[in-house]
Automatic annotation (TrEMBL), chain A:
Broad class of the protein's primary localization: membrane
Membrane-spanning segments: 45-66, 87-108
Region: Disordered, residue numbers: 257-307
Cross-referenced NCBIfam families: QOXA
Name this protein carries in UniProt: Quinol oxidase subunit 2
Species: Psychrobacillus soli
Gene name in the database record: qoxA
UniProtKB/TrEMBL annotation, chain B:
Catalytic reaction equation(s): 2 a quinol + O2 = 2 a quinone + 2 H2O
Protein name, entry field: Quinol oxidase subunit 1
Source organism: Psychrobacillus soli
Domain of life: Bacteria
Cited Gene3D superfamilies: 1.10.287.70, Cytochrome c oxidase-like, subunit I domain
Cofactor(s) this protein requires: Cu cation; ferriheme a
Transmembrane segments: 14-37, 58-82, 102-125, 137-158, 185-205, 226-249, 269-294, 306-327, 339-364, 376-399, 419-436, 448-469, 489-514, 583-601, 607-624
Amino acid sequence: MKIKVKWALLTMIFTIATVLTGCEPLLVLDPKGPQAKTQADDIMLSILLMSGIVIVVLAILVFVLIKYRASNQKDDYEPPHIEGSALVEAICIGIPVVIVIFLSFVSVKSNYEVEATPAAYEDTEPLIVYASTSNWKWHFSYPEEDIETVNYLYIPAGRAIEFKLYSYGPITSFWIPQLGGQKYAMADMVTTLHLAADNPGEFMGRNANFSGAGFAKNTFEVTAMSQADFDEWVEEVHETATPLTEDKFEELLEPGHLGRSTYTGTHLEFSPAPEHNHGSTESEVDHSEHENHDSNHSDEESDHAHH
Amino acid sequence: MDFFDRFAVPHPSFLIYASMVGIGLTMIAIVLGITYFKKWGYLWREWITTVDHKRIGIMYLLVALLMLFRGGVDAVMMRYQLSMPDNTFLDSQHYNEVFTTHGIVMILFMAMPFITFFFNYLIPLQIGARDVAFPRLNALSFWLFFMGMGLFNISFIVGGSPDAGWTSYFPLANNEFSPSVGTNYYMIAIQIAGLGTMISGINFITTILKMRAPGMKLMKMPMFTWSAFIANVIVVFAFPVLTVLLALGTMDRLFGTNFFTTDNGGMDMLWANLFWVWGHPEVYILILPAFGLYSEIIATFARRNLYGYKSMVVSMVVISVFSFLVWTHHFFTMGQGAFTNSIFSITTMAIAIPTGVKIFNWLFTLWKGKIIFTTPMLYSMLFIPLFTLGGVTGVMLAMSAADYQYHNTMFLVAHFHNVIIPGVVYAMIAGLTFYWPKMFGFMLNERIGKWTAWLMSVGFVLAFIPMYITGLDGQARRMYTYSESTGFSMLNMVSFIGAGIMAISFALLVYNIYYSIRYASRDIGNDPWDARSLEWATHTPVPEYNFAITPQVASTQAFWDAKKNGHELFKGKIEKIHMPNNSGWPFILGCIFFVFGFAMVFSIWPLAIVTLIGILGCLVYRSFEKDHGRYISVEEIEETEAKLRGAKK
C-alpha cells in the first residue's frame, strides 16, 4: 500500500514534468547562444547522471525495505551484528569519487568556456556594451557606437558581445537565460560577461539578484538582429535621439521604474565605470586603463575608433 | 512626537494591525491565565530559574515549535501571493519582509533551537552524565537565545521587519537602501541569539569531552553524540565569524563606519564572503545532528547495529572540514573568474562523497535487519530518497558554469528546501516522536503520526518539485509577483497547494500531541521502542539526576548489550549526588540584554549605556558569587528510585 503511494507520487512528478516540458521548452534548456548551450548541455548531462544515482538509491531502498521488513521474516529471526567491511566502504567511496572526478572535469572545462569569448565567434571583434543598473532600471552604453539605451538591449547576432557590468546601488545580477547564465553587477568594480546570440530573436533579460522594493520588475528586453540591421539602428539613433546630458542621467538614476528610452552619447564620459580593479595584478590595471583611455579617446573623436 | 514616530511600522497594513491585536490579546490571555491558576511561582521556580538540561531543552523545543508556526505562516503567505500572476495579497515591501523573516526565523529561531533541544536533552543522557559541564551557562545560553528571538519577533509590530533578505547583502542592507530599523533588528537580535549559541557550543564540547561515563571511549559514543560533538566544534569555529560580521554591520549602520560600503575603502563583497564563511558551515551544524538522529532511529528499527560506525564518524569529520572550504559556491557569479570557481566547484562536489557514504551506510544498516515501520522510521525512510534528490541537485548546483543559470532562481530555492526539509525538519519530527515517551511518559499516536508523515511528504513534493521547473524557466527567487505571460502561474499554484498540505500536516502534528495527551497509555515502561543507547536505560520520566548510579559502558550500544548480551551497566551502590543550584541571574541578564538590544536598534543611547553597565555588573557579580551547589542525599535518591520503579509497573 505504501509502496503504491510512493509510485503514484513518482508517476505524478514525471507526468507534471513531461507535460510542462512538452508544452513549451524551459528557457534555460532552450539555448539561443553558445554560452547558454554549454550550460544547458552541462545541466542535461548532470540531470541524467543524477537521475541514475537517485534511481539506484531508491531501488536499493525499496529492495531492502521489502526483503527485510519484520512481517516478511520469521518471528525468531535475530539480525546479525555487522561492523562494516572495508571492501564495501571502498566501493561506496570509489564510485562517487569517479563520478565527482568526471563532473569536475566537465565543470572546469565549462568554466573556462563561459569565462571567455565564445569559441564559435572568436574571429569576430567583440561588441562592448556597458550594462549598469540603478534602482530599478538597466542602462546600456555602447561606447564605440556612442549611444545609450534604457531597459532594452539591441545586439548583433553571430558576433561575440562583451558586457561590462556595474551598479549604481545594490548588487544586481545581469541575466539573459537563453543567451547564458548571470553575473553580478556591483558598485565598486566592473565584472565581465561574455555572451553571443546565434540568430536574430527576442529574449527576456532581468536582474536576478534581490535589490529592494522594485526588484520584481527590474527587467529588460533583448533583441538580437543581423549586423546590417544593427548598424542601421545605430545610424537611426544618431539621427533621431537626443544627447544624454549629465542632468538627464541624474534624473534617470532616481529610484523607480521607467519605460524604454534612447540617447546619443553615453554616461561613461561624465560618470565612468568603476574600473579600478580591486586586488588585481599590475598588468591588468594597465590593461583596463588602456581600455578606458581608448574608449574616452573614441568618444572625444566622435568616430568609431578601434583599439 | 518625533521620538515615538520611529516605533511605528513604516508600511502598515490590515494584516499587521490584525497581528498586533492578536499578539496583544494572546499576551493578556497568557498573563491572566498564569495569574488565575496561580502559576507564577511554579513558573519561576521550576522553569525560569532552572539549570536542568532537560528542562532547558524542553524550553528550546517550545520556542522551536512556536517559530515553526510563525515561519510556516510566512511561507504560506508567500506561496499564496505567488499562486496567481499579478496577485495583490502582499505588496512588494511586505513580501520582502516576509521572505526575509521566513529565512531567519526558520534557520536561526526554528531549526537551531530544535537541534539545541536535542543537544540539551540527549547529550548528557547518552553519555551517562548528570548535566552539562556548565549548567548555569547553559541557562544563560537559553535566555540569550530567547531574548534574541523575542527582539527579532517584535520587529514587525514595533518599527518594521528587516527586508533585505536573510543574507542582507550590503550595500542593500545599509542605511541608504534600507532606511527602516528593520535591519538593525537583524544585526542585533541575531547577535544576541548567536552569543547564546556560541556559549552552548563551548558547553557541549566540554560536556562531551570531559563528562562521559566510565568506559565510554570517544569511539564508543552513540552516533547522535558524535554528530552533536562535530556540529558544536563547527559552531565554535563558525559563530565568531558571525559575531564579527554582525558587529561590523551594526557599526556601518549605526555609527557610519565603512566596512561594507562601496566607497571610502569599504568592500561590499566582504559581507557576502564573511556571511557565507559562517553561513555554509551553519547548514552543516543543522544537518549533522539530523544525521545523528537518523542513525539512532534507523539502527533501532532495523533491529541492527549501525553499519560502518567508523566510516560514519570519519565522514562527519570530513564534512565538517569541507564545510569551511566551499563558501564561494554561494556566489560563483561574483566574477572571481574560472580558476577560483573551478576550485570551489570541485570542493563542493567532493562533499557529496562523505554524504554518499552515510546514505549507503544507512541502506546497509537496513540490510539483514528486521525492519519495523514506526512513525520515526517512516520519516527516516522518506528522508533517504527525498534527501538524495536534494543532494544530487546540490551536485548540479556545484557545477559553477551551470550555476550561472541556477543562481538566484527558484531552482536554488527548491534545492535548499529539498535538503533542509527532508534532512533537518523530518529528523526533528522523527526525533521528537522517538524521544517523546522519554520526555513525557507516553507515546504519540502512531496512526496520526504516519498520516502526518505521508501528508507532509506529499505536500513537500507538490510544493518544491515545481520550483525546480520554474527556476529553469527563468523565475528568479524573491520576486513578489510575475505577469501572466511568463507562464509560471500553474506550477506556482501547485506549489501553493503543496504548501497548504504541509500546513495541514503540521496542524495534524499539533492535534496528535493533543490527542495523545488525552488518550495515550501511560503504562509504557522505560524502553517502549526496544532501543539501543544509554538514554533509554534510566527511568521515564527521567529523574533530576539522570542516573542514580553512573553507568559503566563497554560498547557503542550500551543499553542493547545490557539487555541482550548481559553487560552490567550499573555497578556499585547509590551515593549522594552533587547538583547545581537554580539561579534567576541568567534570566535577569537575558532581560537586560533584551533592553540593551532594543535601545541599540532605536539608537536610544542613554538606555544603551545604562543597560551595558548592567550587563557588565551582572558579569562582575557572577565572578564574585559563591555557589557550591547542593547534594541530593542517598535516602532521597532511594525514595525517588523506588517511586519511579513502582510507577513503571
